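Action item from last week, closing it out:
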Amino acid sequence: MYNLVLLAARPPEWAHERFIDWWRGDHAELTYRLPGLRAWRHTEIDQALEPRSEGWDGISVLSFDSPEDLKDALASPQWAEAVAQVGDMKGRRIAVMGHEAELFTG
């Protein structure tokens, strides 16, 4: 799998619960339609291990078969619609991409 990983923090004027409800609700409705999307995992962050890790609300991992499939999704009208919905929310995010390696299943 080739993943797009997004770590996000809510807009300052939003409550954590509102942001998670939006992310898993209205925003998810657009995300599900991305061409080539094979899997999507979302983690609601409810605590940080240490102070330097505080301030984040959730992580999304969007999985595709290949870098090319992700590139096609990012060039799609569906991605443009999802980006437009986010608009100028003023939340923070980190977005990174890479190949997945499963190291353990128990």
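Closing note: The radius of gyration is 14 Å.
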